[in-house]
Amino acid sequence: xxxxxxxxxxxxxxxxxxxxxxxxxxxxxxxxxxxxxxxxxxxxxxxxxxxxxxxxxxxxxxxxxxxxxxxxxxxxxxxxxxxxxxxxxxxxxxxxxxxxxxxxxxxxxx
Length: 110
Description:
The chain is mainly α. It has helices spanning 2-20, 24-40, 59-62, 73-82, 96-108.
């Protein structure tokens, strides 16, 4: 009886732990989303074209066709790293990898 109980607990624990783990290919995208939510979403919308937030909505850039000056990686990195008069610079706050993750997220988020 004790063996069956222990085996049942082991199986349940393994199933719960397996459900909570994130596949390796999703860890970067989750980290990028978390960075956006922590640092950018305070001022920027990513999905709503109109926003009452301080910064411009980033949704309008996602709808531009590539030939109509869609923002590219270097452009986005310049703003993240150096900021603007109305946006803080994150070059000393975030690591280079974190800034790259944010740029990737902004370019590829649905």
